[in-house]
Automatic annotation (TrEMBL), chain A:
Gene Ontology biological-process entries: phosphate ion transmembrane transport
Superkingdom per UniProt: Bacteria
Protein's UniProt keywords contain Zinc: no
Keywords: ATP-binding, Nucleotide-binding, Phosphate transport, Transport
Residue stretches making up the ABC transporter domain: 5-246
Protein name: Phosphate import ATP-binding protein PstB 3
Recorded GO CC terms: membrane
Biological source species: Candidatus Scalindua arabica
TrEMBL record, chain B:
Biological role: Plays a role in the regulation of phosphate uptake.
Protein name: Phosphate-specific transport system accessory protein PhoU
Keyword entries, A-Z: Cytoplasm, Phosphate transport, Transport
Presence of keyword Zinc: no
Pfam families in UniProt: PhoU (PF01895)
UniProt-annotated location(s): Cytoplasm
PhoU domain sequence ranges: 21-105, 120-205
Gene3D superfamilies: Phosphate transport system protein phou homolog 2, domain 2
Quaternary structure (record): Homodimer.
Gene source species: Candidatus Scalindua arabica
Amino acid sequence: MNNNIIIKNLSLTYGNKQVLENINQQIEEKKITAIIGPSGCGKSTLLRCINRMNDLIPETRVEGEILFHEKNIYAHDIDVTEIRRKIGMVFQKPNPFPKSIFDNVAYGLRINGTKDKKKVSETVETTLHDCGLLKEVKDRLYTSAMELSGGQQQRLCIARALAIEPEIILMDEPCSALDPSSTFKIEELMMKLKKRYTVIIVTHNMQQAARVSDTTGFLYLGKLIEYGNTKKLFIKPKEKLTENYISGNFG
Amino acid sequence: MARETFRENIKALEKDIICEGEMVCTAISRSVKALKDLDIAEAQKIVSDDIHINKKRWEIEEKCINLLATQQPVATNLRELIAVLSISTDLERMGDHAEGIAKIVIMHEDKPLVKPLVDIPKMAEKASDMLTRSLEAFVNRDEKTARAICDEDDEVDLLYDQVYRELLSFMTENPTIITRATYLLWAAHNLERIADRVTNICERIVFLVTGTMDEIKVSKY
């Protein structure tokens, strides 16, 4: 098993509130890992720890380590911008920039210094194709991204994240604002993405975790209660608490 | 507790399984009694009554499909529905075995049995007892009892061996009874298969409790 993210004894507090408690988790490379759990259990916080998005929240204290290629991303000499480039993120609500479809995807490339127009153009096209969006938008690449449907906007945001060739994609409830058809398109996209990327998804939708992920972690009150093979977890979970949650008996 | 309606639906399915099991037990005892008495009218009724067991099985299957399609069961609930689907199918097939015995009665026409039945009723009694207790184990989620019942299949196999040897010696002594002796062999085989299907039910109970799919008892025949 290749792990490109290893979370060791990770705890996080916001002010006096402990949100994550001693999380230990190894994320498998080129697999989809789902994190499930009831509202407020810390799943989005855990996800945001992985590319240090929580740094932006005042009074946040992180203890423990997250190893990315064996190096602690919380070490003092780490370039956080570089970490966020390699570990991209897609959010719950599609958040395209108020720019053209082309410029949304090209944005990351340009701010990372790619000046070659041909290269930018090729990357935009390939990435949109990989996200199953090219056919739908090829005739209107220079119109505003805000005119796309919610599902298309979310795929555009994924394309934007992929354009700068990250290694890991973090997805924070990427389908919660989408209709079933758009949701299935994103799920299909995730299955394709895992051939090249490691995907970590936080989802409220347990069926989605069961459908798409290889490994699932159940988080409850900031603790990782159970973590393992998705099929096993949904057929015969080891912990009673997991059983009760996934069976809809609480949460 | 959340999902009470769903829990009630699963409990109702358990009752349906018990009901189908009782129908099968009745069919087994009726068919063996009809064989003992060579009661053709009763045998014909048993054959036509098999449709009720088949209908019960379809009814259970439809309820399971509806719950699978609409409730997205996982973990214990998922294993419960899979167990119900599988047990219901095994019960329906046991009903077919009982029907098979009834058909053997009809095939005798007006000819007598080649010998009075001794071991065949014993096989029927043992298989029915195993069936009843396996369904109790299902309701009680009793893995230990399920495993123990599987071991009892050997007793039915031994009786079948005995019937086989006895009928073979009869056929050797008197070739004119070969056809009717073979009928009785088929009847015994139906009962042996019923006991085998009880072990399938027990394997489903083990799966339901442990999540492990395993063949506990490999059939001798």
